[in-house]
Amino acid sequence: MKISSFIFGAAAGAAAAWFLDPNDGARRRSVAQDKAGKYARKGAAEAQSKAQYAAGQAQGMVKQTGESDRSPAAERLNDQGLQAKVQSEIFRGVEVDQGRVSVSVEDGVVYLRGEVDSPDARSRLAEAARAVDGVQDVENMLHGPGEAAPMQQEPGYTA
User: Fold this and answer.
1) Looking at residue 69, what is its pLDDT?
2) Residue 122's CB: how many other CB atoms inside 10 A?
3) How do the domains of the chain map onto residue ranges?
4) Mean pLDDT in consecutive groups of 10 residues from the start of the chain, 159 residues
5) What are residue 78's phi and psi, to 5 degrees?
6) What pLDDT score was predicted for residue 25?
7) Distance of CA 3 to the CA centre of its chain
8) How far apart are the first and last CA of the chain?
9) Residue 103's closest CA among 121, 92, 119, 90?
10) Packed helices 2-19 and 25-64: angle between N→C axes, nearest 10 degrees
11) Distance CA 60, CA 63 (A)
12) CATH number of 73-143
């Protein structure tokens, strides 16, 4: 017991002499303080990194179980984004000249204008547009060859 006390006392005395040296003690204390801060910051950064990793793993597990943190398309897309989405989805599986059909979106309402060859294609395009997530309503103003284009009635408009 006396030997361990002696060794502990000797180590404490040597450390005190090392850090309290009148010539180099201030520099040594500063270096020791800087290194201690470095290791504290490194430990904090590592702990934060591990916490973020664990949070990501937990979020991945939630997504695997079928739950989603995505909001509906109506909340994510503006009118231009919704227009691009509708244009990319409605022409799948429908034989229509895309250059003759105009798609525009205003406040979530899709406006289909142009000429298509068959009434079936007209209804299929409108139904495909209604099925797109984020579409509030569809105004189908498509017409067949030789038919007059339907006119949209503005809300509040009286003729």
Assistant:
1) 52
2) 22
3) 2-64, 73-143
4) 86 88 90 92 92 86 61 68 88 80 90 88 89 90 83 51
5) -85, -175
6) 87
7) 64
8) 109
9) 90
10) 100
11) 5
12) 3.30.1340.30
